[in-house]
Amino acid sequence: MEIIDIKKQFIETFGGSDEELRVFTSPGRVNLIGEHIDYCGGHVFPAALTMKTTIVARKRNDNIIRLKATDLDILVETTTQDMASLKGKLKWGDYQLGVAIELMKAGYDIVGCDLLYDDTTPHGGGLSSSAAIEVSTALMFATFSNEKKGIDSSVDMIEMAKLSQLAEHNFIEVNCGIMDQFASAMGKKDHAIFLNCSNLDFEHIPLELGDACLVLTNTNKKHSLGASKYNERRMECEEGLNALKTVLPGINELAEVSVEDFEAHKDVITNEITRKRIKHVVYECDRVLRSVSALKSGDIATFGQLMNQSHDSLRYDYEVTCDELDLLADEARKLSGVIGSRMTGAGFGGCTVSIVKKDAVPEFKEKLGKIYLETFGHPCDFYISEIGDGGREIK
Ligand code: GLA
Protein backbone atom coordinates (compact mmCIF):
# COMPACT_ATOMS: atom_id res chain seq x y z
CA MET A 1 0.00 0.00 0.00
CA GLU A 2 1.01 3.62 -0.46
CA ILE A 3 2.04 5.43 2.73
CA ILE A 4 -0.92 7.77 2.45
CA ASP A 5 -3.30 4.79 2.47
CA ILE A 6 -1.54 3.14 5.41
CA LYS A 7 -1.87 6.42 7.33
CA LYS A 8 -5.56 6.55 6.45
CA GLN A 9 -6.08 3.03 7.75
CA PHE A 10 -4.08 3.91 10.87
CA ILE A 11 -6.45 6.74 11.69
CA GLU A 12 -9.48 4.54 10.99
CA THR A 13 -8.09 1.93 13.39
CA PHE A 14 -6.57 4.03 16.17
CA GLY A 15 -8.27 7.42 15.75
CA GLY A 16 -6.66 10.85 15.99
CA SER A 17 -5.10 12.80 13.14
CA ASP A 18 -2.03 12.27 10.99
CA GLU A 19 -0.01 14.95 12.78
CA GLU A 20 2.14 12.79 15.01
CA LEU A 21 2.46 9.82 12.70
CA ARG A 22 5.93 8.49 11.94
CA VAL A 23 6.91 6.07 9.19
CA PHE A 24 9.65 3.41 9.41
CA THR A 25 10.58 0.84 6.80
CA SER A 26 12.93 -2.07 6.26
CA PRO A 27 13.18 -4.47 3.32
CA GLY A 28 13.15 -8.20 2.63
CA ARG A 29 16.24 -9.72 1.03
CA VAL A 30 17.35 -12.12 -1.63
CA ASN A 31 20.49 -14.12 -1.08
CA LEU A 32 22.46 -14.46 -4.31
CA ILE A 33 24.83 -17.14 -3.04
CA GLY A 34 26.20 -18.45 0.27
CA GLU A 35 23.28 -20.47 1.62
CA HIS A 36 23.19 -22.06 5.05
CA ILE A 37 26.68 -20.91 5.90
CA ASP A 38 26.04 -17.66 7.80
CA TYR A 39 25.79 -19.64 11.04
CA CYS A 40 29.10 -21.36 10.20
CA GLY A 41 31.02 -18.09 9.95
CA GLY A 42 30.98 -18.04 6.14
CA HIS A 43 30.77 -15.15 3.71
CA VAL A 44 27.32 -14.57 2.23
CA PHE A 45 26.11 -12.37 -0.61
CA PRO A 46 22.58 -11.06 -0.04
CA ALA A 47 20.90 -7.90 -1.33
CA ALA A 48 18.00 -5.90 0.09
CA LEU A 49 14.82 -5.88 -2.00
CA THR A 50 12.35 -3.08 -2.62
CA MET A 51 9.69 -5.38 -1.12
CA LYS A 52 9.42 -4.24 2.47
CA THR A 53 7.63 -3.73 5.75
CA THR A 54 6.31 -0.23 6.40
CA ILE A 55 5.22 0.78 9.90
CA VAL A 56 3.07 3.78 10.60
CA ALA A 57 3.61 4.53 14.28
CA ARG A 58 2.43 6.93 16.95
CA LYS A 59 3.80 7.20 20.47
CA ARG A 60 1.37 7.00 23.38
CA ASN A 61 1.61 8.50 26.84
CA ASP A 62 1.31 5.15 28.62
CA ASN A 63 2.97 1.73 28.35
CA ILE A 64 0.36 0.12 26.09
CA ILE A 65 1.45 -1.34 22.76
CA ARG A 66 -1.19 -1.96 20.09
CA LEU A 67 -0.32 -3.75 16.86
CA LYS A 68 -2.30 -4.26 13.71
CA ALA A 69 -1.51 -5.27 10.11
CA THR A 70 -3.18 -3.74 7.06
CA ASP A 71 -4.26 -7.15 5.77
CA LEU A 72 -5.27 -8.89 9.01
CA ASP A 73 -8.26 -8.51 11.26
CA ILE A 74 -6.27 -9.11 14.43
CA LEU A 75 -5.40 -6.35 16.89
CA VAL A 76 -2.81 -7.30 19.48
CA GLU A 77 -2.81 -5.23 22.66
CA THR A 78 -0.29 -5.62 25.45
CA THR A 79 1.90 -3.53 27.73
CA THR A 80 5.64 -3.19 27.95
CA GLN A 81 5.51 -5.31 31.15
CA ASP A 82 3.28 -8.07 29.79
CA MET A 83 4.85 -8.66 26.36
CA ALA A 84 6.99 -11.59 27.47
CA SER A 85 3.98 -13.56 28.71
CA LEU A 86 2.61 -13.72 25.14
CA LYS A 87 5.44 -15.90 23.88
CA GLY A 88 4.06 -18.81 21.83
CA LYS A 89 0.48 -17.58 22.20
CA LEU A 90 0.09 -15.17 19.28
CA LYS A 91 -1.22 -15.82 15.78
CA TRP A 92 0.57 -12.66 14.64
CA GLY A 93 2.77 -10.05 16.32
CA ASP A 94 5.46 -12.27 17.81
CA TYR A 95 8.33 -10.81 15.76
CA GLN A 96 7.43 -7.33 16.98
CA LEU A 97 7.21 -8.31 20.65
CA GLY A 98 10.32 -10.48 20.45
CA VAL A 99 12.25 -7.48 19.17
CA ALA A 100 10.84 -5.11 21.81
CA ILE A 101 11.90 -7.54 24.54
CA GLU A 102 15.46 -7.81 23.18
CA LEU A 103 15.76 -4.02 22.94
CA MET A 104 14.55 -3.71 26.51
CA LYS A 105 17.18 -6.24 27.67
CA ALA A 106 19.79 -4.17 25.82
CA GLY A 107 18.83 -1.07 27.83
CA TYR A 108 16.39 0.65 25.49
CA ASP A 109 13.38 2.31 27.07
CA ILE A 110 10.39 0.82 25.24
CA VAL A 111 7.73 3.46 24.71
CA GLY A 112 4.01 2.59 24.45
CA CYS A 113 2.74 3.10 20.90
CA ASP A 114 0.11 2.30 18.28
CA LEU A 115 1.50 0.57 15.21
CA LEU A 116 0.11 -0.38 11.83
CA TYR A 117 2.18 -2.76 9.69
CA ASP A 118 2.08 -3.13 5.93
CA ASP A 119 4.16 -5.88 4.27
CA THR A 120 4.88 -6.22 0.58
CA THR A 121 7.39 -9.07 1.01
CA PRO A 122 5.44 -12.33 0.53
CA HIS A 123 5.11 -14.27 3.80
CA GLY A 124 6.79 -17.67 3.86
CA GLY A 125 8.41 -16.92 0.51
CA GLY A 126 12.00 -17.24 1.69
CA LEU A 127 12.59 -13.50 1.14
CA SER A 128 12.83 -12.64 4.84
CA SER A 129 9.53 -10.93 5.42
CA SER A 130 10.27 -11.67 9.08
CA ALA A 131 13.60 -9.82 9.08
CA ALA A 132 11.83 -6.88 7.42
CA ILE A 133 9.33 -6.77 10.29
CA GLU A 134 12.01 -7.23 12.94
CA VAL A 135 14.46 -4.62 11.71
CA SER A 136 11.82 -1.94 11.04
CA THR A 137 10.39 -2.61 14.51
CA ALA A 138 13.82 -2.44 16.16
CA LEU A 139 14.59 0.85 14.41
CA MET A 140 11.26 2.33 15.46
CA PHE A 141 11.54 1.35 19.14
CA ALA A 142 15.19 2.42 19.30
CA THR A 143 14.37 5.79 17.73
CA PHE A 144 11.55 6.38 20.23
CA SER A 145 13.76 5.29 23.11
CA ASN A 146 16.55 7.65 22.07
CA GLU A 147 14.07 10.50 21.83
CA LYS A 148 12.75 9.77 25.30
CA LYS A 149 16.26 9.73 26.71
CA GLY A 150 17.28 12.83 24.77
CA ILE A 151 19.96 10.97 22.78
CA ASP A 152 20.25 12.56 19.36
CA SER A 153 22.71 10.22 17.64
CA SER A 154 21.31 7.98 14.93
CA VAL A 155 20.37 4.37 15.59
CA ASP A 156 23.13 1.79 15.06
CA MET A 157 21.62 -0.44 12.37
CA ILE A 158 24.09 -3.28 12.90
CA GLU A 159 23.03 -3.42 16.53
CA MET A 160 19.39 -3.50 15.33
CA ALA A 161 20.24 -6.49 13.12
CA LYS A 162 21.85 -8.32 16.04
CA LEU A 163 18.94 -7.65 18.40
CA SER A 164 16.51 -8.80 15.70
CA GLN A 165 18.46 -12.03 15.36
CA LEU A 166 18.24 -12.53 19.13
CA ALA A 167 14.47 -12.09 18.93
CA GLU A 168 14.36 -15.00 16.47
CA HIS A 169 16.46 -17.13 18.80
CA ASN A 170 14.68 -16.33 22.04
CA PHE A 171 11.06 -15.54 21.13
CA ILE A 172 10.50 -17.40 17.85
CA GLU A 173 12.96 -20.19 18.71
CA VAL A 174 14.57 -20.35 15.29
CA ASN A 175 18.31 -20.48 15.70
CA CYS A 176 18.96 -18.37 12.57
CA GLY A 177 22.19 -16.73 11.42
CA ILE A 178 22.70 -12.98 10.99
CA MET A 179 22.36 -12.73 7.19
CA ASP A 180 18.70 -11.75 6.82
CA GLN A 181 18.59 -9.11 9.53
CA PHE A 182 21.93 -7.68 8.41
CA ALA A 183 20.79 -7.41 4.79
CA SER A 184 17.53 -5.77 5.84
CA ALA A 185 19.36 -3.27 8.06
CA MET A 186 22.36 -2.51 5.85
CA GLY A 187 21.13 -2.88 2.25
CA LYS A 188 22.08 -0.34 -0.40
CA LYS A 189 20.27 0.40 -3.64
CA ASP A 190 21.69 -1.54 -6.62
CA HIS A 191 24.35 -3.20 -4.44
CA ALA A 192 24.75 -6.64 -2.93
CA ILE A 193 26.41 -7.07 0.47
CA PHE A 194 29.52 -9.21 0.69
CA LEU A 195 29.30 -10.05 4.38
CA ASN A 196 31.75 -11.96 6.51
CA CYS A 197 29.48 -13.57 9.11
CA SER A 198 32.26 -14.38 11.53
CA ASN A 199 33.12 -10.72 12.24
CA LEU A 200 30.45 -8.73 10.32
CA ASP A 201 32.99 -7.01 8.07
CA PHE A 202 31.18 -6.13 4.88
CA GLU A 203 31.49 -4.49 1.51
CA HIS A 204 28.73 -3.14 -0.75
CA ILE A 205 29.36 -4.44 -4.26
CA PRO A 206 27.58 -2.90 -7.28
CA LEU A 207 25.30 -5.51 -8.80
CA GLU A 208 26.09 -4.98 -12.45
CA LEU A 209 24.43 -7.67 -14.50
CA GLY A 210 24.73 -6.01 -17.93
CA ASP A 211 21.85 -7.06 -20.17
CA ALA A 212 20.54 -9.48 -17.52
CA CYS A 213 18.35 -9.07 -14.45
CA LEU A 214 17.35 -11.00 -11.33
CA VAL A 215 14.08 -12.88 -11.46
CA LEU A 216 12.55 -14.36 -8.32
CA THR A 217 10.14 -17.25 -8.74
CA ASN A 218 7.92 -18.05 -5.78
CA THR A 219 6.85 -21.70 -5.44
CA ASN A 220 4.00 -20.47 -3.24
CA LYS A 221 4.86 -23.38 -1.01
CA LYS A 222 5.24 -22.20 2.56
CA HIS A 223 8.22 -23.65 4.36
CA SER A 224 6.10 -24.92 7.24
CA LEU A 225 8.47 -27.67 8.44
CA GLY A 226 11.37 -25.31 7.92
CA ALA A 227 12.00 -24.24 11.51
CA SER A 228 12.62 -27.70 12.94
CA LYS A 229 14.68 -28.82 9.92
CA TYR A 230 16.65 -25.59 10.12
CA ASN A 231 17.57 -26.20 13.75
CA GLU A 232 18.41 -29.81 12.87
CA ARG A 233 20.89 -28.66 10.18
CA ARG A 234 22.55 -26.36 12.70
CA MET A 235 23.06 -29.29 15.05
CA GLU A 236 24.52 -31.40 12.25
CA CYS A 237 27.01 -28.62 11.53
CA GLU A 238 27.96 -28.54 15.20
CA GLU A 239 28.54 -32.29 15.16
CA GLY A 240 30.68 -32.09 12.00
CA LEU A 241 32.71 -29.21 13.42
CA ASN A 242 33.44 -31.16 16.59
CA ALA A 243 34.65 -34.14 14.56
CA LEU A 244 36.91 -31.97 12.40
CA LYS A 245 38.33 -30.24 15.46
CA THR A 246 39.90 -33.54 16.50
CA VAL A 247 42.22 -33.33 13.49
CA LEU A 248 42.22 -29.55 12.90
CA PRO A 249 42.47 -28.28 16.49
CA GLY A 250 42.96 -24.63 15.45
CA ILE A 251 39.48 -24.18 13.96
CA ASN A 252 36.56 -22.41 15.62
CA GLU A 253 34.04 -22.39 12.77
CA LEU A 254 33.37 -24.54 9.72
CA ALA A 255 34.08 -21.61 7.39
CA GLU A 256 37.74 -21.87 8.41
CA VAL A 257 38.00 -25.35 6.86
CA SER A 258 39.41 -25.21 3.33
CA VAL A 259 38.21 -27.53 0.58
CA GLU A 260 41.62 -29.24 0.69
CA ASP A 261 41.52 -29.79 4.45
CA PHE A 262 37.99 -31.12 4.21
CA GLU A 263 38.93 -33.60 1.50
CA ALA A 264 41.99 -34.71 3.45
CA HIS A 265 40.15 -35.20 6.76
CA LYS A 266 36.49 -35.82 5.91
CA ASP A 267 36.59 -39.42 7.09
CA VAL A 268 36.76 -38.31 10.72
CA ILE A 269 33.10 -37.42 10.24
CA THR A 270 31.82 -40.97 10.54
CA ASN A 271 28.13 -40.23 10.03
CA GLU A 272 27.63 -40.16 6.28
CA ILE A 273 24.76 -37.66 6.40
CA THR A 274 26.71 -35.25 8.59
CA ARG A 275 29.65 -35.57 6.19
CA LYS A 276 27.42 -34.48 3.29
CA ARG A 277 26.17 -31.50 5.27
CA ILE A 278 29.71 -30.36 5.99
CA LYS A 279 30.71 -30.88 2.38
CA HIS A 280 28.00 -28.41 1.38
CA VAL A 281 29.18 -25.82 3.90
CA VAL A 282 32.85 -26.05 2.95
CA TYR A 283 32.28 -25.93 -0.80
CA GLU A 284 29.60 -23.23 -0.54
CA CYS A 285 32.00 -20.99 1.41
CA ASP A 286 34.47 -21.40 -1.43
CA ARG A 287 31.80 -20.73 -4.09
CA VAL A 288 30.90 -17.38 -2.52
CA LEU A 289 34.47 -16.12 -2.71
CA ARG A 290 34.75 -17.27 -6.33
CA SER A 291 31.37 -15.70 -7.18
CA VAL A 292 32.31 -12.31 -5.84
CA SER A 293 35.60 -12.23 -7.70
CA ALA A 294 33.82 -13.35 -10.89
CA LEU A 295 31.25 -10.59 -10.48
CA LYS A 296 33.94 -8.00 -9.76
CA SER A 297 35.62 -8.87 -13.04
CA GLY A 298 32.34 -8.80 -14.96
CA ASP A 299 32.26 -12.58 -15.48
CA ILE A 300 28.55 -13.19 -14.99
CA ALA A 301 28.67 -16.57 -16.74
CA THR A 302 30.94 -18.00 -14.03
CA PHE A 303 28.75 -16.48 -11.35
CA GLY A 304 25.73 -18.22 -12.93
CA GLN A 305 27.49 -21.59 -12.96
CA LEU A 306 28.37 -21.21 -9.29
CA MET A 307 24.71 -20.44 -8.54
CA ASN A 308 23.72 -23.68 -10.28
CA GLN A 309 26.32 -25.63 -8.29
CA SER A 310 25.04 -24.06 -5.10
CA HIS A 311 21.52 -25.28 -5.80
CA ASP A 312 22.72 -28.80 -6.54
CA SER A 313 24.70 -28.87 -3.32
CA LEU A 314 21.66 -27.69 -1.34
CA ARG A 315 19.62 -30.35 -3.09
CA TYR A 316 21.82 -33.41 -2.79
CA ASP A 317 24.15 -32.72 0.14
CA TYR A 318 22.38 -30.28 2.45
CA GLU A 319 18.91 -31.55 1.46
CA VAL A 320 16.93 -28.38 2.04
CA THR A 321 15.25 -28.05 -1.35
CA CYS A 322 11.90 -29.59 -2.34
CA ASP A 323 10.34 -30.86 -5.59
CA GLU A 324 8.94 -27.43 -6.42
CA LEU A 325 12.31 -25.65 -6.06
CA ASP A 326 14.13 -28.41 -7.94
CA LEU A 327 11.73 -28.29 -10.87
CA LEU A 328 12.06 -24.51 -11.12
CA ALA A 329 15.86 -24.64 -11.04
CA ASP A 330 16.06 -27.57 -13.49
CA GLU A 331 13.65 -26.10 -16.00
CA ALA A 332 15.14 -22.61 -15.77
CA ARG A 333 18.53 -23.96 -16.77
CA LYS A 334 17.11 -25.51 -19.94
CA LEU A 335 15.96 -22.11 -21.21
CA SER A 336 18.12 -19.90 -23.36
CA GLY A 337 19.03 -16.60 -21.76
CA VAL A 338 19.24 -18.10 -18.25
CA ILE A 339 22.69 -17.59 -16.75
CA GLY A 340 22.08 -19.32 -13.41
CA SER A 341 19.27 -20.40 -11.11
CA ARG A 342 19.09 -21.55 -7.50
CA MET A 343 16.93 -21.64 -4.41
CA THR A 344 17.35 -18.69 -2.06
CA GLY A 345 16.89 -18.48 1.72
CA ALA A 346 16.28 -21.34 4.11
CA GLY A 347 14.69 -23.64 1.51
CA PHE A 348 11.94 -26.29 1.92
CA GLY A 349 9.77 -23.95 -0.18
CA GLY A 350 9.97 -20.23 -0.91
CA CYS A 351 11.71 -18.82 -3.98
CA THR A 352 14.36 -19.41 -6.56
CA VAL A 353 16.56 -16.59 -7.82
CA SER A 354 17.67 -16.65 -11.45
CA ILE A 355 19.87 -14.41 -13.55
CA VAL A 356 18.05 -14.02 -16.85
CA LYS A 357 18.83 -11.95 -19.96
CA LYS A 358 16.27 -9.15 -20.05
CA ASP A 359 14.98 -10.07 -23.50
CA ALA A 360 14.46 -13.69 -22.40
CA VAL A 361 12.30 -12.82 -19.37
CA PRO A 362 8.89 -13.12 -21.14
CA GLU A 363 9.73 -16.63 -22.38
CA PHE A 364 11.17 -17.53 -18.96
CA LYS A 365 7.92 -16.62 -17.25
CA GLU A 366 5.72 -18.27 -19.83
CA LYS A 367 7.53 -21.61 -20.08
CA LEU A 368 8.39 -21.97 -16.41
CA GLY A 369 4.92 -20.82 -15.35
CA LYS A 370 3.26 -23.39 -17.63
CA ILE A 371 5.28 -26.42 -16.59
CA TYR A 372 5.03 -25.47 -12.92
CA LEU A 373 1.25 -25.23 -13.07
CA GLU A 374 0.97 -28.49 -15.01
CA THR A 375 3.18 -30.33 -12.52
CA PHE A 376 1.91 -29.00 -9.19
CA GLY A 377 -1.61 -27.81 -9.99
CA HIS A 378 -1.05 -24.34 -8.58
CA PRO A 379 0.77 -21.35 -10.09
CA CYS A 380 4.14 -19.89 -9.21
CA ASP A 381 4.68 -16.12 -9.08
CA PHE A 382 7.43 -14.07 -10.69
CA TYR A 383 9.01 -10.85 -9.43
CA ILE A 384 11.62 -8.86 -11.31
CA SER A 385 13.78 -8.08 -8.36
CA GLU A 386 14.93 -4.54 -7.72
CA ILE A 387 17.66 -3.96 -5.16
CA GLY A 388 16.77 -1.29 -2.63
CA ASP A 389 18.05 0.45 0.51
CA GLY A 390 18.12 -0.90 4.06
CA GLY A 391 16.03 0.11 7.08
CA ARG A 392 15.31 3.80 7.66
CA GLU A 393 12.77 6.33 8.84
CA ILE A 394 10.84 7.99 6.03
CA LYS A 395 10.45 11.68 6.80
C1 GLA B 1 17.34 -18.30 6.85
C2 GLA B 1 18.10 -17.76 8.05
C3 GLA B 1 19.45 -17.19 7.64
C4 GLA B 1 20.23 -18.17 6.76
C5 GLA B 1 19.36 -18.72 5.65
C6 GLA B 1 20.03 -19.81 4.86
O1 GLA B 1 16.95 -17.29 5.98
O2 GLA B 1 17.36 -16.76 8.70
O3 GLA B 1 20.19 -16.83 8.78
O4 GLA B 1 20.77 -19.19 7.54
O5 GLA B 1 18.12 -19.24 6.15
O6 GLA B 1 21.13 -19.32 4.21
CATH architecture of the domain at 3-205: 2-Layer Sandwich
Low-confidence stretches at least 5 residues in length (pLDDT < 50)? none
Spatial strand arrangement across the major sheet: 5-4-6-3-1-13
How much of the residues is beta strand, in percent? 15-25%
What order do the SSEs take from the amino end to the carboxyl end, as H and E? HEEEEEHEHHHEEEHHHHHEEHEE
Shape: globular
What hetero molecules are bound to the protein chains? alpha-D-galactopyranose
The span between the termini is 17 Å
Estimate the helix proportion, in percent. Answer: 40-55%
Mean pLDDT: 97
Q: The CATH topology of the domain at 3-205 is what? A: Ribosomal Protein S5, domain 2
Largest sheet: 6 strands, mixed
Q: What class, by secondary structure content?
A: alpha+beta
In total, how many beta strands? 13
Question: Gyration radius, to the nearest Å?
Answer: 21 Å
The CATH class of the domain at 3-205: Alpha Beta
Counting H and I runs of at least 4 residues, what is the number of helices?
11
Tell me what the structure shows.
The radius of gyration is 21 Å and the shape is globular. The protein has helices spanning 3-14, 94-105, 129-149, 157-172, 179-186, 226-245, 259-265, 272-296, 300-316, 323-334, 361-376, and strands spanning 22-31, 43-44, 46-59, 64-69, 75-79, 113-119, 191-196, 202-206, 212-218, 338-344, 351-357, 381-384, 392-394. It is of the alpha+beta class. Helix content is 42%, strand content 21%. The strands form 3 sheets. A 6-stranded mixed beta sheet has the order 5-4-6-3-1-13, with helices on both faces. The protein has a domain at 3-205: Ribosomal Protein S5, domain 2, CATH 3.30.230.10. The protein contains 11 helices and 13 strands. The chain binds alpha-D-galactopyranose (GLA).
